Amino acid sequence: MKLLEERIVKDGQVRPGNIIKVDSFLNHQLDVNLLDEIGKEFYRIYKDDGINKILTIEASGIAIACMTARYFDVPVVFAKKAKSKNLDGEVFTSTVHSFTYGKDYDITLAKKFLGPEDRVLILDDFMAVGKAMHGLLDVCEQAGATVCGIGITIEKGFQPGGDSLRAAGYKLTSLAIVEGVDDEGNIIFRPQEG
Q1: In terms of Cα–Cα distance, which of 33, 7, 59 is closest to 187?
Q2: According to the annotation, is 130 in a ligand binding site?
Q3: How far apart are CA 96 and CA 131, in angstroms?
Q4: Residues 114, 145: contact at Cβ < 8 Å?
Q5: Hey, where are the domains in the chain?
Q6: 110 marked among binding-site residues
Q7: 117: helix, strand or coil
Q8: 129 has binding-site annotation
Q9: CATH classification (class only), 2-189
Q10: pTM (2 d.p.)
């Protein structure tokens, strides 16, 4: 998505450890117009896949999921990273390792919100090694839900997450795939298909 790549170049920062900061528009302060375009693009790609639920993980994926859900006219469900006193009934759980925070945590999702009748589009803001995505896929498998697609806003193409999920047969679309940074500090993107 050219618009997203241009915004990453303009306002993103690359920090030591291959950290890509896009907090001025994507995952701390939100550019709602850009998020709307992201939602529109995910809809364009997955509109014919029978999606009836969008799944993400708190917190940064929620805004992207909500903007996308407007186009599908379906609910958003998100896995919680912390135990919550207001989470009632039975839950699906999975353990996820956070690349950003360098620790493991359990995600939970109330069973009443995901089941075998659901055709799911999983969305998230970033993908590096894919641990969060594997946790969400595990929750979908526990629920018997069908994963129709995975949408990632920014993928770190120099890490194995996206390519391993594609190799496993998932329909995965990343709107911008960062391959690295050249000697002048310019962000290099993987050419997009279609």
Answers
A1: 7
A2: yes
A3: 6
A4: yes
A5: 2-189
A6: no
A7: coil
A8: yes
A9: alpha beta
A10: 0.93
